Amino acid sequence: MCLQTSYFPDDHTGEIIAQGLQDSLASWKLREDRLVCMTTDSGSNMIKALRLTEWPNLQCFGHRLHNAIMNGMKDPRIDRAIGVCKKVVSAFSFSWKKRRDMAVVQAELGLPSHNLITESLTRWGSRQLMVERLLEQEKAIAQVLGADKKSRHLVPTWQDIDVLESINKAVSPLKEFTDALSGEAYVSVSYLKPVIHLLNNSLLQPEEGETELTKQIKSNILNYLNNKYNDPVTQELLDMASLMDPRFRTTYIADDEVDGIKKRAVTELMSLPAEKSKSQPGTSVQDLHQEEAAEPSGGGCWLCA
């Protein structure tokens, strides 16, 4: 539910954004101390605004994952291969003849009739899509470009293809998370702990037969994400969200943090205004205490917000 959308003609500096946010909260008579969290992108002005207001900030996972992937691919070999990729895409984008020839070759080789995709800095995950599509159409691209002496030099070398395959192997498992965890129509914060656990223990773990470049990209992405989500305030927020989700409960919360998170949840429920607590359907505080007492060792606690 959107409470307010405001016209914002001023410069988008951290100071002005901070004042606008505080004014919006005040106009709805909402107390700052009841604010659980604010989700933003990773823009420096937004980060500064939240630092000035001293409000808890959880940056959008889709944006943060995009930044992690881009940070993980800082390598001269990757820069060259991506540059080749972009030139190939441009060659087809600006030539209807090459696109026509491409369609013919695709049919001859039994390849999907797909167009090439260009990277967009504002479209999360677009680099991986560009790389994946070029690899899919590699044979058709080589045949079309190789037939024209003016574009023959654009045909990717085997070294470029090796680098692109290493990139695709490292980041293709992540493409589903970018959009899934940056949705506006549903709350996705409780997914963060499970997803980070999945990345650390499965998807971004090195595998036998992978190139060193693939392993390095995975390691760089993991280090970036773990560092960004490592501060205690963020961890406590994610733990509370995970606890409130009956699908996860305490599964992804560190054992030494479980009791503290449960106590905080009960304390916050008990601090709610009595008339609102009675009017809201869900589990009572007494039920929470009973569930906690009856819960077997190591289990979670069912809580209803």
TrEMBL record:
InterPro entries tied to this protein: RNaseH-like_sf (IPR012337), ZnF_BED_domain_contain (IPR052035)
Stretch list, region Disordered: 273-299
Domain of life the protein comes from: Eukaryota
Protein name: Zinc finger BED domain-containing protein 1-like
Organism: Pogonophryne albipinna
